[in-house]
């Protein structure tokens, strides 16, 4: 690591949500994790919240800044419980994934028909380093084996 230049960690950060890599959905420098509905999304590292809100597409977007020049973009959250400017400690809850509407007859029928399985939600992870997309796999432990801890 060069002084003053943002570099990936020696040991990859834990994934922000307990899930497995989505077979489809990862495009180039974007990783996609499938997580159970309503999963808590946690800060993978100590970082400052730089953005929290709707930014097109899937659900809510949170942008974390763990170090100068590095932005971690998390898309697909249903709720974000932290405010812009707040600093999160690694492992602290940032928000949660969504899921089917709990209320309503239709969901109850669907759930029983499918033996109660709730479809997974997808969290998209992007890493920007010095304004350029970087490979999330270098920053995060995203393989199915390592995420189960």
- Assign the structural class, choosing from mainly alpha, mainly beta, alpha/beta, alpha+beta, or little secondary structure: mainly beta
Total of DSSP H or I helical runs spanning 4+ residues? 3
Q: What are the low-pLDDT stretches, counting only 5+ consecutive residues below 50?
A: 145-149
- CATH topology, which one? Glucose Permease (Domain IIA)
State mean pLDDT (0 to 100 scale).
Answer: 83
Instruction: Give the beta-strand count.
Output: 13
Q: By CATH's scheme, which homologous superfamily applies?
A: Glucose Permease (Domain IIA)
Q: Describe the biggest sheet?
A: 8 strands, antiparallel
Residue share in helices? Answer: 10-25%
> First CA to last CA: what distance?
28 Å
Query: How much beta, percentage-wise?
Result: 35-45%
Tell me the Rg in angstroms.
16 Å
Task: Please identify, by name, the CATH architecture.
Answer: Distorted Sandwich
Order of helices and strands: EEEEEEEEEEHEEHEH
CATH class: Mainly Beta
């Amino acid at each position: 690591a060069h002084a003053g230049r943002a570099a990936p960690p020696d040991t990859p950060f834990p994934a922000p949500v307990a899930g497995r890599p989505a077979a489809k959905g990862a495009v180039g420098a974007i990783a996609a994790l499938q997580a159970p509905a309503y999963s808590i999304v946690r800060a993978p590292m100590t970082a400052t919240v730089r953005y929290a809100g709707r930014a097109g597409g899937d659900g809510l977007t949170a942008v974390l800044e763990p170090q100068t020049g590095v932005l971690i973009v998390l898309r697909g959250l249903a709720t974000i419980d932290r405010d812009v400017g707040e600093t999160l400690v690694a492992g602290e809850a940032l928000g949660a994934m969504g899921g089917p509407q709990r209320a309503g007859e239709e969901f109850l029928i669907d759930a029983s028909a499918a033996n109660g399985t709730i479809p997974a939600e997808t969290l998209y992870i992007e890493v920007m380093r010095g304004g350029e997309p970087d490979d999330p796999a270098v920053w995060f432990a995203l393989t199915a084996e390592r995420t189960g801890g």
